[in-house]
Design a protein that fits this description.
The structure holds 2 protein chains of 2 kinds.
Chain A lengths: L2 H23 L15 H10 L2 H19 L3 H21 L7 H24 L8 H29 L3
Helix pairs in contact in A: 1-2, 1-3, 2-3, 2-4, 2-5, 2-6, 3-4, 4-5, 5-6
Chain B lengths: L2 H24 L5 E6 L2 E7 L7 E6 L5 E7 L2 E7 L5 H4 L10 E3 L4 E6 L16
Antiparallel strand pairs in B: 1-2, 1-7, 3-4, 4-5, 6-7
The chains are: A mainly alpha, B alpha+beta.
């Protein structure tokens, strides 16, 4: 692992963490636990498509662990990890079949996978299936927010590829 | 794979979610509010038999406190010391199948047909 790679990944983790912390300050959109914009996923999706799975996974894990520490909610770590890892897996699988102009699709399915992972974690923590009543609402919000963050990652990918950086 | 194939799958999921939302909304909930803590029902309140507004506090071993308010026909979490306040923002719940959930306190309040409090619905005898 070169110094350049460490520096770049650390920088991306810092960017993702900043986005995550700013988003955490926004008021909740609806009284549904787990519903949020997921803007930090822009960094994960972009890194996965541009840098590869290993770098993206390290950025994701770094952001989730540090995010839980900075937000002061270690209980939320379980939900973040479950959602983040399932989202990562689905995006990773989709990467094999998607072109650079279809990255937003990975964003949509990734967001839905994130919500599903959170619901699974909440089921285990609460020992109750009651949280699945939120499933339709969460998936619908996941489609909208996932399309948004996926498009953001797609444009970022195109612009940075054109400028020849990264 | 073409973009439209993916979009078709996404549209199908969206339709299924909308359908599920409508079904959940149409299905009438019971009037017994069951309060679950960490998966076990700790208290049941028959909302149809509440005479006067009542308030009680649910605490857990980690110091989480949820102040539950009950009025005739409806229930809410009035105050909570959890960081996200999702349970408080849910407001009054009088019907529907959507539960009040407080993830930090592992608290779930559901409206159901029958009481799930320990002892309230216990079997008379277990054979075998």
């Amino acid at each position: 692992m070169t110094t350049k790679r460490i520096t770049r990944d650390a920088l991306l983790t810092a960017i993702a963490l900043t986005i995550f912390m700013v988003e955490a300050q926004l008021p909740a959109l609806a009284p549904v636990p787990g519903m949020k914009l997921g803007l930090a996923n822009i960094v994960t999706v972009w890194a996965l498509f541009t840098l590869g799975p290993l770098d993206a996974l390290m950025i994701l894990l770094g952001r989730i662990l540090l995010g839980a520490v900075f937000a002061g909610q270690l209980m939320a770590l379980i939900y973040s990890l479950a959602g983040g890892l399932l989202c990562f897996l689905v995006t990773l699988l989709l990467r094999r079949v998607l072109t650079a102009r279809q990255i937003f699709i990975a964003g949509i399915f990734g967001a839905m996978a994130h919500n599903t992972g959170q619901l699974i974690a909440a089921t285990l923590v609460l020992k109750s299936l009651a949280v699945w009543y939120y499933c339709p609402l969460l998936l619908l919000s996941g489609i909208v927010t996932g399309a948004f963050t996926g498009l953001a990652a797609q444009y970022l990918h195109a612009r940075l590829a054109k400028s020849g950086s990264s | 794979m073409k973009t439209k194939h993916f979009l078709a799958v996404i549209a199908l999921i969206a339709l299924a979610c909308l359908g599920a939302l409508i079904v959940l909304r149409l299905r009438s909930a019971g009037v017994i509010a069951n309060i679950y803590q960490d998966g076990t029902c700790i208290r049941s309140v028959d909302l149809s038999k509440v005479a006067a507004p009542e308030t009680f506090t649910v605490t857990d071993k980690n110091g989480h406190e949820n102040v539950v308010s009950v009025e005739p026909g409806r229930i809410c979490v009035a105050r909570a010391n959890c960081p996200d306040q999702v349970c408080v923002h849910e407001g009054w719940v009088s019907g529907g199948t959507r539960p009040i959930v407080c993830l930090p306190a592992k608290l779930v309040i559901r409206l159901e047909d029958k009481s799930a409090a320990p002892g309230a619905d216990a079997p008379d005898a277990v054979v075998g």
